[in-house]
Design brief:
The chain has about 575 residues and is mainly α. It is built from 22 helices and six strands. About 50% of the residues are buried.
Length: about 575
């Protein structure tokens, strides 16, 4: 290991993985803010006849609040016909608010308790969740466009800077309407940071390590989700928790403002003909690798790259609408966007079956996070060995089987079988979403990778929004939701066969490169084009993804993904 070799590894790891912790905190924050604690009506002595108004404690509760099988009625109070009546003759809605069994998700106050979002107002909770997911959808699309026009790093830093004031607006919101608007913008900012970081990290990897680097980032994301309950217990109040997450994002923006932790993608710079900036970025990567250089490569930094930048053409940017004028790229994007939408939307069909078995917030929360970790591990162990398309097809088939069995046979199956099918379905559906997004990032060309991937990630959040949307009218549309997504799963199984295999292949640079990615037989893996990293040695005879012939002269050293 050359001198200084460990330092670049630490910087690149921090730049590509560590932000996932903070972004995951912002994502999982909504689960704690909207957790509904057990509640009941507060007794109203004005509704009781005069002889019962002197009661207190448990006797007052028995006289004022109906008793149900699971406890006190959450939304009803007894009604008495006349002042001399000793027995109630009916029930009515709560008149003096509610008593909550706190803490809820580790918090002594959240959005539900702050504005009494229960009973007749409980539809506002899924409305807030839908609004937040709409923000993630719009943020993914907007950030994708910004990535392709202004660069990956610029979009990432700008999203983090925007998230700070918007997060403070959420913490200081005075009414529920302000919370809705601020949460929408907060979700958009987080989505922008997530997408731009995802693309920048992917474009610095060589083919054998792209999946591993992306999956490790997924484990950092899961670690951030696991940290949220502990942070909620420490903060105790939802405003303090929101402020703490915002301050973490502010620190992230302050540190990642320095380009050392996250450089602009040289692949995007070269693809858009920004040769001068690409030369500086490649030189910074080569110098940061700590590799020993000879005098020849050092002199090459002033020869061929400078000659290439003299009279270099103007930067050329591509719009996302150009995808619709292609055939192969458009087909691949539509299929992967469809599967990402299905994988995210069908999860609600499985999580609903876990509610009776996991009534407490922490038990259900950690179970869902555990299924995400299992899905990440499964993809890591299989997708590189058997190919992206085969594993995506397998996960989609398993998701469809679990969905159809639960849809048709739930009332005839034993409870533990229903539970097993639900857990398997949650795991495979998450793997479908995760692998669809990663697959899309490998088949989309660099010039439109940000915008194309933004549309696909946005489609996945639209699928996630299906769950709270069906919950707004008191879950009356759940059966139709299940039928529609189960049918979509069958259709996606057929369409996945049309995808090309991207395992071991370099990332396409131009639209022409993307159009050449044709479908291959299912179990026939295409030949590996190259395994050289983005920065190669001067003696390398093969270019990486046809980036430019100047890459070899700029670096003079090797920066492998093991340094990330």
């Amino acid at each position: 290991m050359p001198a200084g070799g460990w330092r670049p590894r630490g910087r690149l790891a921090a730049g590509g993985w560590a932000p996932c912790l903070a972004l995951a905190l912002g994502w999982a924050l909504g689960w704690a803010l909207g957790a509904a604690p057990p509640h009941r009506c507060r007794p109203d002595t004005a509704l009781l006849p005069p002889p019962l108004r002197r009661l207190a404690g448990a006797a007052l509760l028995r006289a004022a609040v109906p008793r149900l099988r699971g406890g006190w009625s959450p939304c009803q109070l007894y009604r008495y016909r006349g002042p001399g009546t000793a027995r109630p003759n009916g029930t009515g809605p709560c008149t003096r608010g509610w008593h909550y069994a706190l803490p809820a998700a580790g918090l002594r106050s959240n959005l539900v308790t702050q504005w009494d979002l229960v009973c007749h107002s409980r539809w506002k909770v899924p409305l807030e969740q839908t609004t937040h997911l709409l923000g993630w959808t719009l943020g993914s699309i907007t950030a994708g466009l910004a990535c392709d026009r202004f660069g990956r790093r610029t979009a990432f830093v700008a999203s983090l800077v925007l998230a700070v004031p918007v997060g403070l607006c959420v913490a200081l919101a005075k009414d529920f309407a302000m919370v809705l608007v601020a949460r929408l913008l907060f979700g958009a900012a987080l989505a922008g940071a997530f997408l731009s970081l995802y693309v920048a990290r992917l474009e610095l990897c060589d083919p054998p390590h792209r999946l591993g680097v992306t999956t490790v980032a997924g484990f950092f994301w899961i670690a951030g989700e696991l940290l949220l309950p502990g942070l909620a217990v420490l903060c105790r109040d939802w405003r303090v928790l929101q402020g703490a997450v915002t301050m973490i994002l502010a620190l992230l923006a302050a540190f990642w403002w320095c380009p050392v932790l996250l450089l602009e993608s040289p692949r995007w710079l070269l693809a858009t003909r920004q040769l001068a900036r690409a030369r500086k970025t490649l030189q910074a990567l080569a110098e940061g690798s700590g590799s020993e250089r000879s005098a020849g490569p050092q002199q090459s930094l002033c020869s061929e790259p400078q000659a290439l930048t003299e009279g270099s053409p103007q930067p050329r940017y591509h719009a996302v609408c150009e995808i619709f004028g292609t055939r192969v790229i458009w087909r691949n994007s539509a299929i992967l966007g469809f599967t990402a939408f299905i994988g995210a939307g069908i999860r609600h069909c499985f999580t609903r079956n876990l509610t009776p078995h996991l009534p407490h917030f922490f038990s259900s929360y950690f179970t869902l996070v555990g299924t995400e970790a299992t899905a990440c591990l499964f993809v890591l162990l299989t997708a590189e060995r058997f190919g992206r398309r085969a594993i995506l097809l397998l996960c989609t088939v398993l998701t469809g089987i679990c969905s159809l069995l639960l849809l048709a046979l739930t009332q005839y199956l034993l409870e533990f079988i229903v539970l097993i099918l639900s857990v398997v379905g949650i795991t495979t559906s998450h793997a479908v979403t995760m692998l669809s997004i990663f697959f899309a990032s490998e088949v989309l060309p660099t010039v439109v990778r940000g915008a194309g991937l933004g549309l696909i990630v946005g489609a996945s959040f639209v699928g996630k929004a299906a769950a709270p949307i069906t919950a707004i009218p008191n879950s009356r549309g759940f059966f139709l939701h299940h039928v529609v997504f189960a049918s979509f799963t069958i259709l996606s199984i057929l369409s996945i066969m049309l995808l090309p295999e991207s395992q071991g292949r370099s990332l396409p640079q131009s639209l022409e490169d993307g159009e050449r990615r044709h479908r291959s037989p299912l179990f026939h893996q295409p030949p590996r084009e190259d395994h050289v990293p983005l920065l190669t040695t001067p003696s390398s005879q093969r270019s990486y993804s046809n980036l430019t012939t100047s890459t070899t002269s700029v670096t003079g050293s090797t920066v492998t993904p093991s340094e990330i």
